[in-house]
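Request:
Um, any thoughts?
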Amino acid sequence: MNVLMDLLRIKVFREEKAELALARARQFLAQTDAKLDAARRTLQDFLEESDRKERELYADLCTRLVLRREIDDVTLDIQLMKEQTTRYEVEVEEAKEARNSAAELLEQAKQHHRDAVRMREKFTEMLRIVQEERDIDAMRLEDLELEEAASTRHAKQKADADQLLTEEL
């Protein structure tokens, strides 16, 4: 019985450990979700700002006489904004990949936790069955002892009665 109790304690420990890993995986997923949201917001904000700035630059060029160098400067500014947009898009993709990895880790942690719970439940049930069998055996042994005591008492009473009869005759 002590071995089963020790095994059950190990199973409970493993279940608790799996619960902690599951909580950490959920927290990590929440962090990667937040990073993905932040990367998307940054990209969206930059796209809106660069679109506004591009329109301002072209509007400024259209309102006056300009030199070729000023047109080249505007073109360069727009190219730099496109490159920055590409960097932000890469960050969004990296954040998506990190989020997907975190989601996979969470699923693995959930499966590990389900397995640990199942094993603990199995050992709890096994321990319950063993205890019930021990209780039944103890009751059976007690019944046998009571029957033996009753039959011994009955035999003694019969022997005493026979001895009384013998003495009277």
Remarks:
- The CA atoms of residues 7 and 66 lie 84 Å apart.
- The chain has two helices and no strands.
